[in-house]
Amino acid sequence: MTVTAVTPVTRLDDFEYEAGLQRLRNYVEQLERADKDAEKGSLQRAADLAAIYEDKRWIEDLPKPAPPRRPHHFRIVEDSRERFAKEWVKEYVTSPTTGNPLTKDAAKHLLTAEIDVRRNVVARATTLPESIGIKALRPLAKLVKDGRADQLPDVWKRAVKLAEAEGQEAPGQILVRRALADHNKALGIKATVSKRTVESYQHKVESNFDWLVRHNTPDENRALLRRLAERLKAEHQWARGELAS
């Protein structure tokens, strides 16, 4: 068996499920307007999406993942957040007006805000105002990723104080980032310095290409190489001044 499920199931009743799904569809429409209210209620929609994800009935809406071509190849986790955000959300969480789906990145941000950040904050007896949006919480996800979830309340309290000093009702993303930077500085934790080099990028490209060679068809790989060759040619032409900048 090449497909595994790792997250426990928490079922919603049918009414809760459909109501949450409809709220999410309306949220996609809200994002499409791209106005000042785009973030309004986003934390509540994060809770809706997380509840549907953890309900697990969405797995039944998708075809069974194809097994890898070889035993050592990448194995698809049937109930992963990645699959949920990439496949199910694209099909079922769509705008009632345009039919456009919630993007994969937006879905992943919602899940991170609820599962990784908000729950960790609330579990440590720290409340969040309902008016807060998921963007404000985004910088805090790194704390959870780094195994420092216990520090979330301290950073949030610092962000609240910064907001109060500036006469704001609640901290936004900029103030949360500043609070996190202040917190790390107080602990003597330095920001990670990127060590990316040309060599590391080349290695990454080669590794990704190896994966594509194993999973694409030969025709798909040849088409990719042609596209890359055309881009390289265009880049050289631009450098020689043969193309308009």
Write up what this structure looks like.
This protein is mainly alpha-helical and 245 residues long. It has three domains: 1-123, no CATH class; 131-193, no CATH class; 198-239, no CATH class. It has helices spanning 14-33, 42-55, 81-92, 104-122, 134-137, 141-145, 152-165, 173-187, 198-215, 218-239.
The number of distinct β-strands equals 0
Shape: globular
Q: Round the Cα radius of gyration to an integer and report it.
A: 22 Å
- Determine the mean pLDDT: 85
Task: Flag low-confidence runs.
Answer: 1-7
Write the element-wise H/E pattern from the N-terminal end onward.
HHHHHHHHHH
Give the structure's gist in a few sentences.
With 245 residues, the protein is mostly helical.
Question: Mind sketching the topology for me?
Answer:
Layout: H1 14-33, H2 42-55, H3 81-92, H4 104-122, H5 134-137, H6 141-145, H7 152-165, H8 173-187, H9 198-215, H10 218-239
Helix pairs in contact: 1-2, 2-4, 3-4, 7-8
Key words describing this protein structure:
single chain; 245 residues; mainly alpha; disordered N terminus
